[in-house]
Every structure is written in C-alpha cells, then in structure tokens.
Amino acid sequence: MTEQTRHREHETETQGTDLPSVCVVTHPLAAAGENATRSLLDILSAITSVALVTADLPADSEIRDRHELVELTRKGAGDSVVTAAGRFLLNQLRMCRVIADRDEDVVLFFGATSYLLPIIAARLLGKTVLVEPRGDVPLTLRLNWEQQLPDPVAAGLAGAVRALERAGFAAAHGVITYTPEMARQLDLHPESPTVYPTGARYVRTDEFRVQQSYADRDRVVGFLGRLDEEKGIRELASVAAELPDDVTFRFIGDGDLREWLEQDLAGEIEVGRVELTGWVDHDKVPRALNDLELLILPSQPTEGLPTTILEALACGTPVYATPVSGVPDVVRDGDTGFTIDSREPTALASGIEKILDRDDLAAISENGRTLIEREYSFDAACERYRGILRSVAGYSS
C-alpha cells in the first residue's frame, strides 16, 4: 500500500475524530514555503479537519484542489522594505478578521511566527494557538536587507522582527520545532512543557527509497538544489575543481549561477570531472539521489531542516552538511552522515576525500534509511502530530 493510499484512508478515518480541528496560517508563500506547507497540510488532514489561510499561493499549487483555502491576497511580500512592511501589517489585519470567522479550535501559525496581531487576536477569541517556525526568519530578512540597506539599519529591522517573533512564542500556547536542536538555536528549551521539539516532517518513503545498492554506486558526489549565491555554489565550484580526478562532482538543479558554473568549470566539464544536469523534475529526484555516493549541502543558518537532507537519507545517500538548526539531529556525524566543520573550499574538498576513503559508508547509508523509516515516514509524522493535538486539546486561554 502506498503512502498516498494510506493518506486517503486516513482522511476518511478523520470523520468523527476526537482531535481538535486546525486552521493553518502562513505568510505569503514562495515555492519552498508552499512545499513545506503542503506537507504539513497532508499530515494534518490525515488526522483531523484542516483549512489554510495564506497569501500569494502559487497558481498551480496542489493545495488549491486538496484543501480548504482562504487566500487573503495574491500579492507577495514586495521587493522594497517599505512595501513589505505595509503588506506585513495589512495581512495581519486581514488574518484577524478571517480567524474571527473561523470555527477551528486550533490556529497554527506556520512560518508566520512574527505575526503578533493575529496571534493575540486568536488568543482573545479563545482559540488554542500554536506557532511553528520553519527556520530563522529574522536572520533571513537581515541577510536580504543588507543587500538594500546599510548594515546597522538591516540589523535593527531584523532585531524588531525577532522581538515580534519572541513575543509570538510567548503569547502562544505552544511552539513546535522540527527537532530539539532547532529549538535550542531559537533560544527555546526542548524540555519546556510548551515546546514540542519533534514537529512533523515526513518523506514519501515509498518514492524516496534505495533503488541502487550503495556498493554499486559510482564515485560521484554532488549538490542538489538552486544554483544561486545563498547556496554556496561559488565555494562548491572551487571544491569541485580540487577533488581527485577519479571523483565526479555533479550539480543537480538550475539557477542564476548555471551559466557562471559552465564558464568557470569549463575544463572540468569537458573531461567529465564535473557534470551539470540542469533542472530535474521532482519525480526524478530519487533516481538522482541514488546515483550519488555523497550529497554535499553547506546549509545556511537560516534553514530549519532542509527537505533534501531527509530525501537523500531515505535514498541511502549519506549527507555532508553544515550542523545548523535542526540538521545535527538528523545528520549524525559518523552515523547517518557527516558534519561540515569549515566551508572553506580546501577544507571541504579534504573532508570529501576522507569520507570517500572510509570503509563503513555502506553501513552509514543503511543507518540513514533506517532513521527516516523510523522517525520521518508519513505514519511517524502523523503520530507525532496526534500527540501534539491531544496535548493541546481542551487547553483554555
């Protein structure tokens, strides 16, 4: 039975459930946020009734056909700081009005953890409020604003957003994080009774699975994702150029730096030491991950827990990643993968060589798959959220 089939059966079983209904609230959704939100809605809809309140949902999103939706506006956050601030406030007021009209028992702010006005409004309306950060939003905003504004101004604005987020954490009945380490990096205590440090993330384990045994894989390492500045692509280009001749570095994906890579690594590409696959459709990603001996992901400190890491481990592909946010709870050094100590290209290249020379990589590959099956399957994610909703059920304001 596939996970999709189980999902449909779960949705039927939610009729008559004793779990509280949930209204998920998000900020305007870009592609990455839309994917994460869709996953969360799949989990919640399998165990209870759920609706989504959001803005700027992609026109082709599957969410439109699969879940009840209230779209506040088709406008995104905006390019300028002033426009973004105006829409930020206006969307909060719209959310307050919508939440007041909703019947759901629980309001879950997913990523929108600095939306203090609707958080407080939901509390005053007697609803149970949960907030779930997807990463370090204030830091993400600061890095973006530093491209437009003087550093002190960007830092001040980001500090204001962080203060709003902290106030949102305090006002909510509970805070959900992906992993305990993510909670700590957000200055939350995983042992606190109002913190739920193992939030529901899942991988479609029937789709992302081991298709090629680790022993049969070629000496290929690679990166999968957007080829842009924030993903460390320029550093990875230097790493690719430093690796031994018998190791191929494969860039899987597309982005603004695709043309730059083709020029900078022209010699390595010509002799086959570097490969650029271009865009890979999502249904072909499992095959692409199965072709790697090692996935290199110098994760940004802004990220909560990159889905690519979970998908790679599900395919039996060890991951070499920066130990930020929730990553160390999944990429366990020497057990399911390896942690990056330095993003300096020479150090990264040396680390890759040492990893490929290990004689226990097949066991590490198996450990990664076992971890995903045990903790990040769809069923495991549903069970975790059942526990969270049971815990907050009947919680009075």
Automatic annotation (TrEMBL):
It holds the Pfam family Glyco_trans_1_4. Signal peptide: none annotated. Keywords: Transferase. The keyword Transferase applies. Transmembrane segments: none annotated. GO terms for molecular function: glycosyltransferase activity. InterPro entries: Glycosyltransferase_grp1. PANTHER family: SULFOQUINOVOSYL TRANSFERASE SQD2 (PTHR45947), TEICHURONIC ACID BIOSYNTHESIS GLYCOSYLTRANSFERASE TUAC-RELATED (PTHR45947:SF15). This is LPS glycosyltransferase. It comes from Haloarcula amylolytica JCM 13557.
